[in-house]
Structures
1.
Amino acid sequence: MRIFFTGGAGKAGKHAVSWLLDRGHRVLNADLVPLDDPRVDNLRVDLTDCGQVYSAMAGMAGLDDLDHPTGVPRFDAVVHFAAIPRILIAPDSEVFRVNTITTYNVIEAAVKLGIPKVIFASSETTYGICFAQGEMLPEYLPVDEDHPTVPHDSYAMSKVANEVTARSFQARSGIDIYGLRINNVIEPHEYADMFPAFVQDPSLRRRNIFAYIDARDLGHMVECCLRNDGLGYQVFNVANADTSVSADAEEIVQRFYPGVPKRREISGHETFYAIDKARKLVGFDPQHGWRKNVRG
């Protein structure tokens, strides 16, 4: 497939782009920062400028398009990962402005150019737990896509607003638009650096609902969404199948979630951030995990 990918140089984006390139897809990285991979085409685009977004998405992916026999081909899909990735990187108002206007610009351009699929990065933060002031408990366990999204911070607010924007564009256009509520992205080298501390102190993972997503499995999820058509508007939790701590489910519930209702039983090291929907609808099957990478 021919993919217009925003934010491909970021922590999550670079792994997803690499995954897609390894499987033969053509990727144009639209970003302010180029991705250092000789297989990818880079185009510097200010995504807050709707004219730049439209021009880039309507244009060539690379110089080889000059020789295309029928003119410049359109993109088959858009993957939108570009964003200010959390609070406390820029002022709150700027986080909200940049994240919402870039998403609007990207989806509007895709719809008007007739691109049939958009996949965009939403976030675990939409559930209001990650960046809440003080402690915020989920309304029930496991946290699935039906859980209320009432965020308390500018980053999560922007992601909820983006989901509303995406749903509106899908309703008026009929294209496929899938939102990924991505949990804490972990790169392979970070297991040895970070997870021993999580084993010693599980409370460090409370704000992430004790979940995580391996960056390679995030790439797999993007490809699952590219392969599956006709689902209209959907949001998916994206996490690995296990928790990010050594404590089992019963220990976590007793210590951190006393009194929180359970909609079904959770056992062993099963994630509290439910991925059943992604498994069922698009065939998501995460394969990488910290337990194979952290000794002791």
2.
Amino acid sequence: MRILFTGGSGKAGRHVIAYLLARGHRVVNVDLKPLDLPGVDNRIADISDAGQMHDVMHAWAGYDEMEHHRTPPPFDAVVHFAAVPRLLMTSDNECYRINTIGTYNVIDAALKAGVRKVIFASSETTYGICFAGGERKPEYLPIDEDHPVVPEDAYAMSKVANEQAAQSFQRRTGADIYGLRINNVIEPHEYKANFPAYMADPDMRRRNIFAYIDARDLGQMVQRCLEVDGLGYEIFNVANSDHSVNLTTSEIITHYYDGIPAKEMGEDETFYCIEKAERLLGFAPEHNWRMYLHDPREA
């Protein structure tokens, strides 16, 4: 596929692009800085500028395309990850402005260019737990896509607004638009660098609902979304299938979620439910921390 990918120079995007390139896709990375990765085409552009987004949707990927086409060929899909990536990086209103108008511009330009598959990054923060003032607990466990989204912060508010905008675009056009509520992204080197601290102090993972997503498995999730057509508008939780600490499900519930309604769960099953992605997309995470770090519960 010929894919336009926004935000591919960021932490998550560079791993997803590598995953897509390895599967034969042609990827044009649209970002404020280029991605130094063999095989990727880069375009410097600002998602908050509607004109730039409409332009890149109709642009050459590289000089080689000019040998075979009189005009740039269309993109088969757009993957939109570009954003202010978290709270406390810019002013709150700038975070909200860039993330909302940027997403509007990207989806609008994609659909007007005839793209029929758009995948966009939403966030775990929409559930209101990650960036809550004080402690907010889930209303039930595990958290699935039907759990209320009740954010207090500008970043998560922008993601909820983007989901609503995406749903409206889909209703108007009938295109496939899939939103990914991505949990805390973990790069391969971060298992040894960060996870020992999580094992020593599980409190560090409370705001992430004790979940995570390996960056390579996020690549798989995007690939699955590209492969599955006809779902219309859908939102998917994206996480690995296990916890990010060396406590069992029952131990975490006892320490952190006592009294919270909970379904019967496996002892290592994530509280950030991915059943919908497994069922509709065939998503099957392949990487977990136990593959790269010794589990203290084992002899």
3.
Amino acid sequence: MPSLASNALSVSELNKRSRQALERDLGEVWVEGELSNVSRPASGHIYFTLKDDRAQVRCALFRQRARFVSAPMRDGDQVKLRGKVSLFEPRGDYQLIAEAVQAAGLGELLAAFERLKAQLDEEGVFANARPLPFPPRKLLILSSASGAAIRDVLAVLAARWPMADVTLIPVPVQGSEAAPAMISALGLLNRQSRLDPERDVVLITRGGGSLEDLWAFNNEHLARAIFHSRLPVMSAVGHEVDVTLADFAADVRAPTPSAAAERLVPDRRSLLRELQEHDARLRRALQARLQRDSQRLDHLRARLRHPGEQLARQRLHLDSLAKRLERAMHQTLTHSRAQATQLTRRLAGQDMARLHQAEKTRTAQLERRLTSAMHHTLERQRTRLSAAARELNAISPLAVLGRGYAIAQDDKGQVIRRADETTPGQKLSLRLGEGRLSVEVKRRFR
């Protein structure tokens, strides 16, 4: 090895010698650990990190060897692999070149997650299922102020419901400080909600990441704090496949931050379309109703006759009855005279004085009966005429005017039926039950 500055190694020579030393001294080894950050580029190689609770090492499984591995190789899997310790010279990265991979059971993190999940589930910490206000009056968001999650949430809220009242409480969402910070913020929000009842929903969110990145949301104390929160909580942590204890403890779980925003507020564009559809249906129904009423009014107008026409018909009928009565009376008198003449001739050879007296008496009786019949007939006709006049008067517009109504006419004598047929300042004539009034339009009402 060179010992003088003049004999200094280049970086590439140093990395080369280091690689050779690692491969020569350690050779092929078996290593057990947990998979993390598994990546499968288009080249067919598999890159990943193998770790335990104190250290980690980068690993590569090249395509020629990857096709012989039956294990699915997912984040969190506990595996044993055989490989050679080496160094990637261009970057000086220490790595393990894997030759074979065997499954070694669930990773420690997943095992701890399952144990804690079962414990909290048995205690009832996952029993929350309160409905969220829709839309919330004030939305409180616990998230990183610089993360992609808060940008996605705010973008969706702005597009769907711009009037949303949103307050961001910035907290760390990764690392050892994340869970205590979220617990403290959640407690503070619950205490403040007693003074400000408008606050009604808390959203806890962050973007996707590895199991280690999301581990703060599997904190037992955070799950309990969410369970005991007075304010309803929605959790949206990671991607759709990511599930944390915070998701189980929350009242509602959303698969992504964007999906959470979509569930929290309505889509104003959809509501506007629905409102426009209701408005169109209302207008169509109103138009149909107006058309039906207009047709009904035209039908009633066609049936309505002018009182003068009704009176004229009644007069004609009365004249006809009078003529019929006169003819009947004349026929009756003629017939009675003929009978009297006949009887006179028949009685000529008899005791004329006695017969004359008898006929005179009979004639007087007939005349009295005839006179009485005429009086009764005339009285009945007068009664019918009076009833017809009362009936006609009941349907007469003039009778309606007599009850306090009025007919408005313009200066041309046209009847005014709607307020929009007039203009402010226009002179109108009001026909009342008795007399007329001249008025001026001051204001129209609909």
